[in-house]
Amino acid sequence: MNTLKTVFSILATLILFYGFACSIRIIFSWIPDFKNGFTNFLSKICDPYLDFFNRHTPLYIGEFNFSCLVALAVLSFFSILFFNLSVSLTITFASVFALIVTTIEHIGSSILFWFIIILIIRLVILIFQRNSYNGSEFIKRFDYALNPIVYRIARTFTGGKLVSYKATLIISIIALITAYIIIQIFFIHLIRLIMLIPF
Question: Which of 12, 111, 117, 118 is the most buried (most CB within 10 A)?
Fold first, then answer.
């Protein structure tokens, strides 16, 4: 019995560390032409797993690929599952269902959180940019990817009227932060209800 708990504890720890390694690999992948022995090592151990999700669960919002968040959420799911098994070898329907719902919520919330961060970064760049129409090629491609999403969100609150790009970003950020808070509150109550299931 104790041996099985130890095995589950080791598995939970290994998956947790692998998830951490994948997170670092994802962050380094955002830096163009940044390669060294450490990043090459991370690439070898993490890319096969991350590429599987890029191929089989493409999760795009505009031009942005959030498949890596699904990959991290799956690792988180199994890490928590194995940790729970290391504490108590019994699994209830309620605990597994709550874990699945938590994983789905984690994926959605992570996507929403990072998208809000992206919009805030773009707004800050826009505020401090002297001429908003003469940005770098990277900024132009960035805006090309963002525009369909943020204008769609803003039109919902402006009655279809066109507003400036800065106003569009501000409206989108406020709307998404509000949605993020509502989603968090909803899932907290949902998990509490699920945990009341007696089996």
Answer: 12
